[in-house]
Amino acid sequence: MPPRLPFQPRALRLVQVTPPAGPSRLFATASPTNPKPKGKSPASGDIPPLQRPLGTPIKPTSSPKSWQQRKDEMLDDDRAKAKRKAFHYLERLHEAKQGYFHDYNQARTARGGKLWIAPNVLIREDKANYFPDITGKSLLGQNVHTTDVFKGKATLVTIISTRLSEEHVQSFVQPVLEDLEGHPDFQFLTINHQPNALKSLLVSFFTSSLKRIVPEHQWPTYLISAGSWSPIDIIEPLGLGNSLLGYVFLVDHNAKVRWAACGLATEDEVKSFRRAAAVLVGRMKGGVGAGAGAGAESKAGEKAVEGALDPALSGSH
């Protein structure tokens, strides 16, 4: 009897996205294209820049939907188009995926599974979309809606689900927290998403362990979100194409996504993130740094970014 051959997984079909030609009008910058990142992350040159404003065009709400709202959604042509787009996205994702280990294999590549390079400036307010409403239980045991958290403050949002994703977001957030943590118009929100029911149950059992790791002042804004997320309302709009990666967002006081990143940070992305966060916080009411260092960083960051803005776009965006 001939020996059995080892299992060979099917080849992955990769979908290449070609960036559109010409200047982008999505970002508040006069530069025609985003320059290639100069960071030292492996093979960063072949990673495309962020191609679209992330989020949903529909303003989120934390209020339960009425029967009339659900009926309107069923008859809404725009939502039907979004649904078809999401199904098309999942179809293409299914074509690229060949089994459970797709995300894992993608994360093991030289580029670490990174899906895009973050923009070097804030996304224009008039072009930005809304961060969808996500619910979770805080470390204080309270049910929280992200839409309620965003009101009145600039928010650094991270989405994690694995130890790898925690390493990704830490490469972004630590410098910004050093600059702005404690500022009255700034807050840090962590969403720990556990789609697997068993894993979610285990995480909830170890809440006390999380409390020993997470600083106490962050407990109200550290959310554990259990269960699968809607591909139409959350996954596709936020660009969560790999469940193992960490994702970072800057969300303004109107719940609009003004900056986004994923995977391990490059040096240029960290610089851009610090500038963008300083500018966004500086534009809030009473935007003065929590300390001398934060205030200086806010002013320096705002001048650096505003200097790159087209005068016609810089206004209040």
List keywords for this structure.
single chain, 317 residues, alpha/beta, Glutaredoxin, 2 domains, 7-stranded mixed beta sheet, 11 helices, disordered C terminus
Count of spatially separate domains? 2
* Biggest beta-sheet profile: 7 strands, mixed
Beta-strand content: 5-15%
- Mean pLDDT equals 76
Number of strands: 7
Helix count equals 11
CATH architecture assignment name of the largest domain: 3-Layer(aba) Sandwich
CATH T-level topology of the largest domain: Glutaredoxin
Measure the end-to-end span: 72 Å
Low-confidence stretches: 6-20, 30-44, 94-100, 286-317
Given the C-alpha coordinates, what overall shape results? Answer: globular
* Strand ordering within the main sheet: 2-1-5-4-3-6-7
Q: What's the CATH class label of the largest domain?
A: Alpha Beta
Q: Which structural class is indicated by helix and strand composition?
A: alpha/beta
Describe it.
This protein has two domains: 64-96; 111-314, Glutaredoxin, CATH 3.40.30. 36% of the residues lie in helices and 12% in strands. The chain is built from eleven helices and seven strands. The protein is globular.
Topology readout:
Layout: H1 67-75, H2 77-96, H3 102-107, E1 135-138, E2 143-145, H4 146-150, E3 154-160, H5 163-180, E4 186-194, H6 197-205, H7 207-213, E5 222-226, H8 231-235, E6 247-251, E7 257-262, H9 267-282, H10 292-306, H11 311-314
Parallel strand pairs: 3-4, 4-5
Antiparallel strand pairs: 1-2, 1-5, 3-6, 6-7
Helix pairs in contact: 5-9, 9-10
